[in-house]
Amino acid sequence: MAEDVILDYLQLINTNGIGPVSFHKLVAEYGSVKDALAALAKKTDVFSKKEAEAELKSAHKNNVSVICLEDEAYPALIKELNDAPPVLYVKGRVDLLNYPASVSVVGSRNASVIGRKIASRLAYDLTNSDVLIVSGMARGIDSAAHKGAMYAKNQNGPTIAVLGTGVDVCYPEENKALYDQIIAQGALVSEFIMGEKANASNFPRRNRLVAGLGAGVLVVEASVNSGSLITARLGLEQGKDIFAVPGSPFDNKSGGCNQLIKDGALLIESADDVLQTLAVTQNRTLKINQNANLNAKPLDNDKKESMMQQNTKTDVEPKGIVEVIGSSGIEQDDLIRHLGLPTSEALMKVTELELDGLVERKNGSFLVLTKQGLRKLK
After folding, report:
1. Which of 17, 42, 108, 372 is most buried (most C-beta within 10 Å)?
2. Last residue of a domain, which of 61, 80, 111?
3. Measured between alpha carbons, how far is 43 from 51 in angstroms, rounded to an integer?
4. Residue 46 pLDDT exceeds 80
């Protein structure tokens, strides 16, 4: 995309009073972004070219791609929205924007341990079946889904996080390690200008893009008043499949999911439930989870060996892993070698312990027990 075109887009969308809807109306009225900008400049002060150049320079300095609506890299699923952002900022893998199959995962920020485990496992299995996980990098279910996705494919799974801030701003701050890992393996996406801080009004706009980037929206845990249900509704309005994981009728955290199922959302018990629906509605041939479907394609030799190893090993209980880590901690690779499990299985067990609050990381790969983990050790 020519730089002068990008600058025109940045000037028009960042002019006071101009949002995505008014942007599209102006372009429709005047025929092009350049002509709309020229007409607007006669009536009001517009975001100057100098400011636009500074914005683009800031993006390039931070290794951020600026994708305009007419760029071929712009996600086709988002382009269909009547309020599609004229400009998207992407830090990481731009190629993921038009991934063949994707699912948006949302849920409670104040999620239960079991809710986080479910989100992580579903994301892991879906990613291994070549379905891209999209979420919002919030606490709780979002973070668990991103982590599960990135542990898939031999700890190299991709994922997209849609932010309610500029892509150069990590929010919440506690997710800095997750933020960095997503940049390395996937992509951060935002419609907000560089340096934009967290603002309550930004997140509903973020949520429509979370829903928009998926072929379906999967709600793992949500109360009846959860913002996740708004994302599900946005997905429904966009013509997406809506999936929900059921929960106890006595658990407030499951009330929203149970209500979605009553209203017609598809009940999800495993990744295969999602895959089978996408295979029909998206007309795609998707890999079914090898452990859950006896009719799946034959495994190649490497996968056969891995599965044979998995089937011949005694299951390792969490208490046993805690004892191996011990009070002094252990490098992740040393733990994996000690357990003797396939790498992906060992990593999932470590992830579950992290989600349970028993284990935490120091300097990326050194595993130590939390206070809760040390109590379990005793």
Report:
1. 108
2. 61
3. 19
4. yes
Total-model pTM: 0.77
Q: Provide CB contacts within 8 A for 199, sequence distance 6+.
A: 164
Q: Is 310 found in the same domain as 273?
A: no
Same domain, 155 and 25: no
User: What CATH number does the domain containing 335 carry?
Assistant: 1.10.10.10
Residue 57 lies in a domain: yes
CA distances from residue 330 to 64, 321, 324, 325, 370 in whole angstroms, order as listed: 36, 11, 8, 5, 13
Task: Kindly state whether residue 79 falls inside one of the protein's structural domains.
Answer: no
Location of structure tokens 């999602």: 274
- Main-chain phi, psi angles of 302, to 5 degrees: -65, -40
Q: Beginning with the edge strand found earlier in the chain, give each strand of the sheet holding 216-219 in spatial order.
A: 65-68, 87-92, 187-190, 159-162, 132-135, 102-106, 216-219, 241-244, 266-267
Rounded to 5 degrees, what angle do the CA atoms 181, 185, 191 make?
Answer: 85
Q: Find tokens 């992580």 and name the residue.
A: 120
Mean pLDDT of 148-174: 97
Single-letter residue type at 234: L
Contact of 272 with 292, CB cutoff 8 Å: yes
Buried b / exposed e along 86-109 (16+ C-beta atoms within 10 A) = bbbbbbbbbebbbbebbbbbbbbb
Report H helices in 139-243: 141-155, 176-185, 202-212, 228-237
For residue 359, what pLDDT band results from cuts at 50, 70 and 90?
A: confident
pLDDT (tens digit per residue) in 170-204: 999 999 999 999 999 999 999 999 999 999 889 99
